[in-house]
Write a structure and sequence with these properties.
Layout lengths: L4 H7 L1 H19 L4 H21 L6 H26 L6 H21 L3 H22 L8 H24 L8 H5 L2 H38 L7 E2 H8 L11 E8 L2 H8 L1 H18 L5 E6 L2 E7 L3 H16 L14 E7 L6 H17 L5 E2 L1 H10 L10
């Protein structure tokens, strides 16, 4: 054993690094328990560290038992890592599939250890098997064109990590594998294996941690910019998303709709704030149902809402507002009697060159108060609304079904 001590020490560097990652992933999970994939990655690192330690330190010393135990731990580690990657994206292999793969892999190792001893077969089963599992996971995580940069990086690192198992194994393992443990620990295959797992495994772990940090930051931005009651943007989020569209270079038309509930205070005073919350939440759902993918809406405060319609003219926006107004008027609520319909007034303004958000908002706000002054439960400018109603046909701004 003394002759291979330096190789043993070098081989333990990779497992040592993964042990550190296990601690990092576990601590991250303690801070973000709503992200169980972090715990799965911590478990994966621990299992891989244990598997490598068993294999490198010959615990147990009996070669065949060692091969099966280390193989079981390594396979479990790969499956835990894959489940963590998939669950982050709302996907999974599932417990049944994981157990089937684990039992099949361990059974194959047992067969080629005890029934028909063949080291070469065990090497190919493990390396090709792990490569195949990781490759299937990578193919299920192909990022869409509009995905975040970190998601694309994570995918490519995972794909490279999966594919490297095949050429590395073929190019480094000899047709006649080493006959002794000492010879195996000094083989090209063993050294390249440890190096590749340390480098690519660490790169994958770093990418997963970076993706987790990115997920947390995105959630924080969402909490900062989204109204929790309606699920729409708040004033800050709406303004920030609107600003890039109000540039001198913007060619397409866009229209802003402001909406304010009629006598909303009386709803809260008469039926309670829970009834008012029900109305606001329902209205948010109506807006999301009617909007196109390019549209966005926000709750600017209290009972005031805004909708931006890129590429929409005044008549189109009036048609959109009329559908919203009608649906709101005919929506029933648990805590509000039918005899007290819930209505809203709408003001519309089309963007002009040079308008910033304040100017566009002020013009839409003037129209909103014009609608209030004309009797509420209506749209201003009135001419556009009447034009839409007279046409009696679907507006250009159709709902996203």
């Amino acid at each position: 054993m003394n002759g291979i001590a330096p190789y043993t020490t070098m081989a333990m560097i990779g497992p040592g690094i993964l042990a550190v990652f296990a601690i990092v992933f576990f601590c991250a999970w303690l801070l973000e328990k709503k992200r169980p994939y972090l715990l799965l990655h911590a478990i994966a690192c621990i299992l891989f560290t244990l598997g490598s330690t068993v294999q490198i330190l010959f615990i147990p010393a009996e070669v065949k038992t060692n091969a099966i135990l280390s193989g079981f731990l390594h396979t479990s580690a790969v499956l835990a890592a894959v489940e963590g990657l998939l669950r982050r994206s709302g996907k999974r292999f599932g417990l049944a599939a994981d157990l089937a793969i684990l039992l099949a892999g361990t059974g194959a190792l047992w067969y080629f250890a005890y029934i028909q001893p063949m080291l070469l077969a065990r090497v190919y089963i493990q390396n090709f098997g792990y490569g195949a599992i990781l490759l299937v996971a990578a193919l299920r995580l192909i990022p869409p064109p509009d995905s975040r940069f970190i998601d694309r990086i994570l995918f490519w690192i995972l794909l490279i990590f999966a594919l490297h198992f095949f050429p590395r194994t073929i190019l480094t393992i000899d047709v006649n594998p080493p006959s002794s443990v000492k010879a195996f620990s000094m083989s090209t295959f063993w050294h390249v294996l440890q190096l590749s797992l340390a480098v690519l495994g660490s790169a994958l772990a770093f990418a997963i941690l970076a993706a987790a940090v990115s997920d947390v930051l995105e959630d924080l931005r969402g909490e900062r910019d989204v109204d929790p009651l309606t699920g729409l943007l708040n004033r800050r989020g709406f303004s920030e998303r609107l600003q890039p569209l109000l540039t001198p270079q913007a060619q397409s038309s866009l229209t802003l709709i402001l909406c304010d509930f009629d006598r909303f205070k009386s709803i809260n005073d008469t039926f309670g704030h829970s009834a008012g919350d029900e109305v606001l939440k329902s209205f948010g759902a109506i807006l999301r149902d009617e909007m196109r993918p390019t549209d966005f809406a926000g709750r600017l405060g209290g009972e005031e809402f805004a909708v931006l319609l890129p590429g929409a003219a005044m008549a189109d926006a009036a048609g959109f507002a009329e559908r919203i107004r009608s649906r709101l008027e005919h929506t029933g609520y648990v805590k509000i009697p039918v005899s007290r319909p819930v209505t809203a007034s709408f003001g519309i303004a089309e963007h002009r060159v040079g308008d910033d958000f304040r100017i566009l908002y002020e013009r839409a706000d003037e129209q909103l108060y014009s609608a209030k002054a004309q009797g509420r439960n209506r749209i201003a400018p009135t001419a556009e609304a009447e034009m839409f109603l007279a046409a009696a046909q679907p507006a250009t701004v159709s709902r996203n079904r």
